[in-house]
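Appendix C reproduces, verbatim, an entry submitted by the partner laboratory led by Prof. M.T., so that reviewers can inspect both the input and the predicted structure.
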Amino acid sequence: MIFDTLKPQVETIISTVTTTTDEKLLSICKLLETHVEYYNWVGFYFKNGDKNELKLGPYVGAPTDHTIIPFGKGICGQVAVSNENFVVPDVSAQDNYIACSITVKAEIVIPIFVNGENIGQIDIDSNTPDPFSEADERFLEFVCQKVATIL
């Protein structure tokens, strides 16, 4: 499975001492977007200081206007409140979805915890309907656990 081959690469990116945190996050985005064919937009959002909003961090894919997302708004904003994974097989069926692109069919968002606090998330959009499985969830949880060690 592709995820088994990507895990050591994620660990290598995280443990590289010569790169900044943002460079590491961008490298992870590029790795996932390049090697998982149905990952069409990969990015990180982080809590914006003391505000109840998320701020866009490193990402790869089409440019987005959604650089700030209020807690509770859209899939990412809901994960900031719920502290739980959110897998959306069909974005058109979600009332609270923020459309980034008309090509996006599905989305998965996994929170990142540091010392038990939800400080951000990885957000992945797919142009493929219903592509995400439990394997995606477990792999992205692994990615978020590794990312948490450098934040």
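The mean pLDDT is 95. Additional entries are available on request from the coordinating office.
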